[in-house]
Amino acid sequence: MAKIGIALDLGTSGFRGQAIDLDQNGIILSTAVTTRHPLPGANVIDHLHFALEVGLDWAHRVVIYAVNRVIDNLRIDREDVVCLAVCGNPIQLSLFQEIEIRDLAYAGKRKLDAMGVVPPKRDAQIVKALEIKELDLPPEIDVLIPPAVRHEIGADALAMMLQTGMLEKDEISITTDYGTNAEMALFYKGTVFTGSTAAGPALEGQQIEDGLLALPGAICDVEFEADEDRDCIRCRQRTGARDQARKGRLKTSVLNQDMSSIQGDIVDPETGDLIARGEADAVGITGTGVVALLSQGISAGLIRIPKITTSYQKIFLPNGLKFTEKDLLEAGKAIGSVRAGHITLCQEAQIKLEDIETAYMSGASGTYVDALKAQEIGMIPPGVEKIYQVGNTSLAMARDMVRDVNELWRMKKIADDLRQHHCMFASSKVFEKVYILELSHWTEGMNLKQYQKFLKKYGLPPLTEVTRQPEVIKTVEKDIPDLGRMGLEIISNIGHQKTIIFQRCLGDGACVEECPEKAIAMEEEDGEFKIIIDLAQCDGVACRRCERACKDKVFDLVQLITSPE
Prior knowledge:
seven-stranded mixed sheet, 18 helices, Alpha-Beta Plaits, single chain
């Protein structure tokens, strides 16, 4: 019988799993990824809110349903599995284990004591699969769960620090996981300053109208090429039309089935007209493509924040895809939260943003993005000398634990010994002030000169321009460098579907029409109206537009989600 281990990254935007042959020197057999997170909502706070509202047991059930689907798609015999290692932030791991989460939602010991909450230790541990309710694996196998440094600093952040090697180098460095929940760590004089911000899913291609996670068919990069008609450019400059878009073409790069970047179509960004056919058709744009589009669009005059200056107020992409002003706002808010986080950590360490020497970029967005384009729009500190792109560090850490259980105890020792300072951005006055400036810039068009005036007023260092081109080192070419002998399986329908008939529902379909994510469907059966919801598509209990749209006031989202199977 073969001995197989499973590595699992419980990410905020989706789950990623790999099967590893422990009899064959730990080679990777297969990979499976979901295109979304199974829980309703766009970020980790939404997932926590959902679990608090509908109950931890329900949230756990949805998470484990998705985990079992990932294992199904690894195409292995479950009876050969001898261990499972998971990695993720404290909320995701707590939902996986079905342990107390209220300490992650509420601040203050007095508040938690009044609620009778005893925070779990969240230390490194090995439990049996039978202790994880409804996990479809042999009951006696080991499940390896890595530690949190504190309840705010999870195993994913620790993995990010360890996999980059930043703690072993004598330099001022910052590492950022560019995802829905953007974790970041600043290393200065032996102390790690950490924080995380719910940047939102735009950096991973979600909540973008034609957005897509980093999956085959996703536009991962763009390049604008201006027409060579210099006389026309000079003419526009003489007539004061320099803010208008330059005529040109948009070259795209698309991910193929092996998750490698290949040439996509070339189009006219003003009209979408095809100029040259590429090697692959695009089906959406991922977060890295969005970052590149912002950088190229701003420099080409296609974008003047917060507006798109083309005739249709859209930038056209191949295959009928487009980028809208609403997409621009979503992306700007995400980018702004990352830069606000970087500035805040620097203030915690009492250094300037330009003092940072090295930047590490992890996660799918950090791997596929053009690092120099990301730096141009503020996602990377302006003065860094080197930028490392390091891939999915959470999955890499889970793989290391599967191959050698001692890696789990190494994580524990580092977590115990780490000199660290965590900044809660939600309560940081610096973050609040800077993020308001970022929102004013990206959503209202505040110019950087005015931005700088406010920074001076708040006693914060000014933003500096990028004055030198840093060295970019890609330690991996793909987010998941090795997909395994059997390759990649993509799970697009990860959502747990629930169905209910609300008494007195007249079936006008207002709830279906109002849902922004098209997560709700309605079917008539024997004169009654069945409501069906896909939990992975739903925006969560913070949205509830479906409830507000119901004229009969019978729609109850929580009742629908928790209805019997």
